[in-house]
Amino acid sequence: MMPSVALIDYGSGNLRSAAKALERAGLDSKREAVIAVTSDPNRVRQAQRVVLPGVGAFGDCMRGLTSIAGMRDALEEAVLKRGVPFLGICVGMQLLATTGREFGTHAGLDWIEGEVTPLAPGDPALKIPHMGWNAISIVRPHPLFAGIATGSQVYFVHSYAMRPRDSDHVLATADHGGAFAAAVARDNIAGVQFHPEKSQASGLALLANFLSWRP
Q1: Which residue has the higher pLDDT, 122 or 153?
Q2: How far is CA 105 from CA 31, 85, 99, in A?
Q3: Where are the domains of the chain?
């Protein structure tokens, strides 16, 4: 039986593109999985892998996620207790933090200690949101970045960035008038600020690596 991946539908993500990219990554790498777009906590609780996308403001996304009865408990059971591989995408990565500072102060999942703060480019000519292709610098080896080189281009759309308290949790950085965390991880939990589903070969490689990742 193929492993199941729960792609969480909580009203804040480009679910169709993410699902299609995961399916293609699985086919191309011969790591096929059943991709279930779901808002059912039981499906999340039983999944072999979990993906949390996110588009929009931190507080809105957190409210949307926690408004689904039983979803936070299901996530904690699957990810924290069973140790299934977890990938947060864009705001889905930011929700891993302790606190988000977008339009007020909001509690996050607190799975990776840190806070989400506004991008503040040192060059006033650089626009916010940071939107488009940018190179990443891989700062420590990790299975998610196997075969992906420093300097690879990936696609970003964001105005805020996660700042982990422990720098060892940063896997990759990018620069937009100053360095920011482009990817983070600890144990079985990982997140990327960029959109792998929009990042062509590098994004598909990362998703394929996620499908075979065994923390």
Answers
A1: 153
A2: 40, 28, 7
A3: 4-99+115-212
Contact 59, 102 (CB under 8 A): yes
Confidence of residue 186 (pLDDT cuts 50, 70, 90): very high
User: What is the distance between the alpha carbons of residues 178 and 199, in angstroms, rounded to a whole number?
Assistant: 21
Q: What is the CATH architecture assignment of 4-99+115-212?
A: 3-Layer(aba) Sandwich (3.40)
Residue 159 to residue 193: CA distance in whole angstroms: 11
**61 given a catalytic annotation:** no
CB atoms within 10 A of CB 42: 11
- 77 near 183, Cβ under 8 Å? no
Rounded mean pLDDT of the chain?
95
Per the annotation, the verdict on 176 as an active-site residue is no
pTM for the whole structure: 0.96
DSSP 20-51: HHHHHHHHHHT---EEEEE--HHHHHH-SEEE
Quickly tell me which residue has 């200690």 as its tokens. Answer: 113
Contact status, residue 213 vs residue 83, Cβ threshold 8 Å: no
Spatial CA neighbour of 135 closest among 145, 147, 149: 149
Whether the ω angle into residue 129 lies within 30 degrees of 0, i.e. cis, is: yes
pLDDT tens, position by position, 55-74: 999 999 999 999 999 999 99
Q: CA angle, 34 as apex, 181 and 42 as ends, to 5°?
A: 85
User: In the numeric block, which tokens belong to residue 144?
Assistant: 């998610």
- Residue 151 token pair: 């300097």
Say which of 90, 106, 158, 169 is annotated catalytic. 90
Annotated active-site residue 195? The verdict is yes
